[in-house]
Write a structure and sequence with these properties.
This protein is α+β, with helices and mostly antiparallel strands and about 190 residues long. The chain has two helices and twelve strands, in the order ααββββββββββββ. The chain starts with a helix and ends in a 5-residue tail after the last strand.
Length: about 190
């Protein structure tokens, strides 16, 4: 009889537990309007990160460090991209892990499928040799390690100011060319 009593208690507790679980699940309701108030539909294909630092390396050597206050990763399979909506700062490293140049802007988008970063709005790129590039748009081709623009550019250094339309450089900003040059250039004899 003692075993029968214990079995009866277990059955009662199991029945009560199952009833409670049934009530809990029955009271749950997925109201799509309530869910969209919490998570807007346009944010379901996005990941948002704050205070981001990305490193690009080659053979375990850091080549570029990119920092941004906010990064939105768009998870669209046909056009995956990372967008820095609050600006970026990119440090380009040369020999002995020394910064060769620094690039800043108010907006940047990295397109994964194209292996390109489009940098826009108040773009400033300064090299360790006191050369400074200013433009409204630069495109960084990650695969070929080249940076270019088809927009108006201005390069200043201690001796000259060069203006032009169109620009191409290596990612270290040590070798560059400007198309359609205009400006004040210092010439040697």
């Amino acid at each position: 009889t003692k075993i029968r009593f214990i079995k009866k208690q277990i059955m009662q507790k199991t029945t009560i537990l199952l009833l409670l679980l049934a009530l809990i699940f029955a009271s749950c309701e997925n109201d799509l309007e309530e869910i969209e108030k919490i998570i807007p539909k346009e944010n379901t294909n996005k990941e948002i990160a704050k205070d981001v630092t990305l490193f690009y390396s080659d053979s375990a050597v850091v080549r570029v460090r990119i920092q941004g206050a906010e990064m939105i990763r768009h998870l669209d399979k046909s056009d995956p991209r990372e967008e820095f909506t609050k600006g970026i700062k990119a440090d380009f490293f040369g020999n002995r892990n020394k910064v060769n140049s620094v690039l800043t802007s108010k907006h940047a988008t990295r397109y994964e499928s194209k292996h390109q970063i489009v940098i826009r709005d108040s773009v400033v790129w300064e090299s360790s040799s006191n050369e400074k590039l200013e433009t409204e748009e630069l495109i960084w081709d990650e695969k070929n390690e080249r940076v270019f623009s088809n927009r108006y550019v201005r390069i200043t250094n201690p001796d000259e100011i060069i203006y032009g339309y169109g620009f191409e450089a290596n990612q270290e900003f040590t070798e560059w060319t400007i198309n359609q040059i205009d400006g004040r250039i210092k010439l040697k004899n």
